[in-house]
């Protein structure tokens, strides 16, 4: 008998990627139920040669499932994830609602997959920016102990959903055609512009995305004293986030040593060819499960610091692929 799976938010960007990944996986599935908002009910989505109708989410609809992926936002997860758990399913949640709850594991399998042993029916997927960063940072931490991280992000619009993708496309067309540009999804024009991540600024002066990176990285690494400074920026790129990272370590490591470590680390692909100008880019990262890392160099301003640049597909490793990896860990 195969697994009975559910996907909440099946018509969203992450849900669509999860369906594609499940099709390509070797996981035996006896039933797949797709859930979305009321306006998507009845929509047909192809899966392994079948046309599956999107269902309306309810407590009864979540019965008799083994695992449920949630990717429909915190408000939906807060209500329905506990109901799925009560019905006997294990929940893998992509929202921020459960991430910082002490009893809920926050998991990147390459980093802290062992935390899955302690789950109580709900497992949290990290923020996409945190997930990408942790994959590249963890191998360095294991061999040199990371003491401080300074990260600046360049985040693609797809992280804000399908409407944000359409807004960038529309604004570029309007710019070329000389038409007025009116922001609707974002607070400012996104075409040919960059601005602070569109999440509220907290009392500590950091926006919501920055605070997620700071808090979640400490939890994933089990390092509450880890020093993290994050600056998160939205850029006019359709897909795949980038991050500029400066890492201070307890002992000095060279750029070459860092390059060797990362090249042999799971989930990482090193693209670092200065002679030919080959480095990570969003276009190279789009559609890939690995986090691309390059521009690896020693920080000339600090005796024990390494700098690098990464790019990763936030819809895959930052969301759907990380969730599927968690499922694979649970069933293997």
From TrEMBL:
<dbReference type="InterPro" id="IPR036291">
    <property type="entry name" value="NAD(P)-bd_dom_sf"/>
</dbReference>
<dbReference type="GO" id="GO:0071266">
    <property type="term" value="P:'de novo' L-methionine biosynthetic process"/>
</dbReference>
<dbReference type="GO" id="GO:0004073">
    <property type="term" value="F:aspartate-semialdehyde dehydrogenase activity"/>
</dbReference>
<dbReference type="InterPro" id="IPR005986">
    <property type="entry name" value="Asp_semialdehyde_DH_beta"/>
</dbReference>
<feature type="active site" description="Acyl-thioester intermediate">
    <location>
        <position position="128"/>
    </location>
</feature>
<feature type="binding site">
    <location>
        <begin position="11"/>
        <end position="14"/>
    </location>
    <ligand>
        <name>NADP(+)</name>
    </ligand>
</feature>
<keyword id="KW-0028">Amino-acid biosynthesis</keyword>
<feature type="binding site">
    <location>
        <begin position="39"/>
        <end position="40"/>
    </location>
    <ligand>
        <name>NADP(+)</name>
    </ligand>
</feature>
<dbReference type="GO" id="GO:0019877">
    <property type="term" value="P:diaminopimelate biosynthetic process"/>
</dbReference>
<feature type="domain" description="Semialdehyde dehydrogenase NAD-binding">
    <location>
        <begin position="4"/>
        <end position="119"/>
    </location>
</feature>
<keyword id="KW-0521">NADP</keyword>
<keyword id="KW-0560">Oxidoreductase</keyword>
<comment type="similarity">
    <text>Belongs to the aspartate-semialdehyde dehydrogenase family.</text>
</comment>
<dbReference type="Pfam" id="PF01118">
    <property type="entry name" value="Semialdhyde_dh"/>
</dbReference>
<dbReference type="GO" id="GO:0009089">
    <property type="term" value="P:lysine biosynthetic process via diaminopimelate"/>
</dbReference>
<protein>
    <recommendedName>
        <fullName>Aspartate-semialdehyde dehydrogenase</fullName>
        <ecNumber>1.2.1.11</ecNumber>
    </recommendedName>
</protein>
<comment type="subunit">
    <text>Homodimer.</text>
</comment>
<keyword id="KW-0791">Threonine biosynthesis</keyword>
<keyword id="KW-0457">Lysine biosynthesis</keyword>
<dbReference type="InterPro" id="IPR012080">
    <property type="entry name" value="Asp_semialdehyde_DH"/>
</dbReference>
<comment type="function">
    <text>Catalyzes the NADPH-dependent formation of L-aspartate-semialdehyde (L-ASA) by the reductive dephosphorylation of L-aspartyl-4-phosphate.</text>
</comment>
<keyword id="KW-0486">Methionine biosynthesis</keyword>
<comment type="pathway">
    <text>Amino-acid biosynthesis; L-threonine biosynthesis; L-threonine from L-aspartate: step 2/5.</text>
</comment>
<dbReference type="GO" id="GO:0046983">
    <property type="term" value="F:protein dimerization activity"/>
</dbReference>
<dbReference type="GO" id="GO:0051287">
    <property type="term" value="F:NAD binding"/>
</dbReference>
<dbReference type="InterPro" id="IPR012280">
    <property type="entry name" value="Semialdhyde_DH_dimer_dom"/>
</dbReference>
<feature type="binding site">
    <location>
        <position position="99"/>
    </location>
    <ligand>
        <name>phosphate</name>
    </ligand>
</feature>
<dbReference type="GO" id="GO:0050661">
    <property type="term" value="F:NADP binding"/>
</dbReference>
<dbReference type="Pfam" id="PF02774">
    <property type="entry name" value="Semialdhyde_dhC"/>
</dbReference>
<dbReference type="GO" id="GO:0009088">
    <property type="term" value="P:threonine biosynthetic process"/>
</dbReference>
<dbReference type="GO" id="GO:0009097">
    <property type="term" value="P:isoleucine biosynthetic process"/>
</dbReference>
<comment type="pathway">
    <text>Amino-acid biosynthesis; L-lysine biosynthesis via DAP pathway; (S)-tetrahydrodipicolinate from L-aspartate: step 2/4.</text>
</comment>
<dbReference type="InterPro" id="IPR000534">
    <property type="entry name" value="Semialdehyde_DH_NAD-bd"/>
</dbReference>
<feature type="binding site">
    <location>
        <begin position="158"/>
        <end position="159"/>
    </location>
    <ligand>
        <name>NADP(+)</name>
    </ligand>
</feature>
<feature type="binding site">
    <location>
        <position position="155"/>
    </location>
    <ligand>
        <name>substrate</name>
    </ligand>
</feature>
<keyword id="KW-0220">Diaminopimelate biosynthesis</keyword>
<feature type="binding site">
    <location>
        <position position="234"/>
    </location>
    <ligand>
        <name>substrate</name>
    </ligand>
</feature>
<feature type="active site" description="Proton acceptor">
    <location>
        <position position="241"/>
    </location>
</feature>
<feature type="binding site">
    <location>
        <position position="314"/>
    </location>
    <ligand>
        <name>NADP(+)</name>
    </ligand>
</feature>
